[in-house]
Specification:
The protein is an alpha/beta fold and 272 residues long. It has 10 helices and 10 strands. The protein is globular and about 55 Å long.
């Protein structure tokens, strides 16, 4: 794999849903770079197409959706893969964390069962090896008492801890790309800050290419290396975090920046 193939590259991605006489353009030919070892923020208001971008990468679009363009991962166009081949990538090489962790964790299965079943389905390792790996990953995402946590069920955790477990599930197969779709929206400020620090550390330690989807440009100012701003299915601005935050060229981006508290936009290491 060459350096140019690392991470994720989206080229002229277009997604349309609906009949020919009443079609709705969700994504309108977007281009996006998600380099390895960096957090790429995708910001914009609700309905701008942020989540649909992540779902396109994962191959989780509605059946009626029509897709064109390219989604390049390690030199492979994911849009050209058969469902079986895409399944080999999804959840293994490319993983996604959703806003609501309860939507991706089964309420009737233990944490051990959910982490190890997912891992063994991709790797075919023994139950003992899968359990050992699950403990290691729970420690990596800083879930307290991993041995005890494995025996518990989702309803026995707080929202913040549950989101860390969802991140652990996404990391079980050591993916190269992690898509985080509004992962901190439903959490209080203190818990949110802890999760953002976790994502930053995972990116740095594991060399992940992280696509962080959020409506909150303030979150981007504290975490992302690069920022892309979406509006109405198009990327209206993209670049280095500091450049986008301090010298935006698009009026819509400027309006988002102007709405932020001053403490979120002062200097390259701005923090919320």
């Amino acid at each position: 794999m060459t350096a140019d193939d690392s991470g994720l590259r989206i080229r002229s991605l277009r997604v349309t849903i609906g009949r020919d006489d009443a079609e709705n353009d969700i994504l309108r030919g977007i281009d996006l770079e998600v380099p390895a070892g960096q957090v790429t923020g995708l910001a914009g208001e609700s309905g701008s197409g942020k989540t649909m971008t992540g779902m396109s990468v994962m191959g989780l679009l509605p059946a009626a959706a029509r897709v064109s363009g390219q989604i390049l991962f390690e030199g492979t166009d994911l849009l050209e893969l058969s469902p079986a081949r895409l399944n080999a990538y999804r959840g293994s090489r490319i993983a996604m964390v959703f806003q609501d962790p309860t939507a991706s964790l089964h309420p009737m299965l233990s944490i051990e069962g959910q982490l190890t079943d997912h891992y063994r389905s991709h790797t075919k390792v023994s139950k003992a090896a899968a359990r050992k790996h699950a403990l290691e990953v729970l420690e990596k995402v800083q879930v307290p008492d991993p041995e005890i946590a494995l025996r518990k069920y989702p309803h026995q955790f707080s929202g913040g801890q549950l989101q860390r477990i969802a991140i652990a599930s996404a990391l079980m197969c050591s993916p190269s790309v992690l898509i985080a779709d509004e992962p901190t929206t439903a959490l209080d400020v203190t818990v949110q800050a802890g999760l953002l620090r976790l994502l930053r550390r995972l990116c740095d330690d594991l060399g992940l290419a992280i696509l962080l989807v959020t409506h909150d440009l303030g979150v981007m100012s504290s975490l992302a290396d690069r920022i892309a701003v979406m509006r109405n299915g198009e990327i209206v601005e993209a670049g280095d975090r500091y450049q986008v935050i301090t010298a935006p060229t698009d009026p819509y981006t400027r309006s988002l920046i102007d709405a932020l508290p001053a403490t979120q936009t002062t200097g390259p290491e701005a923090t919320p």
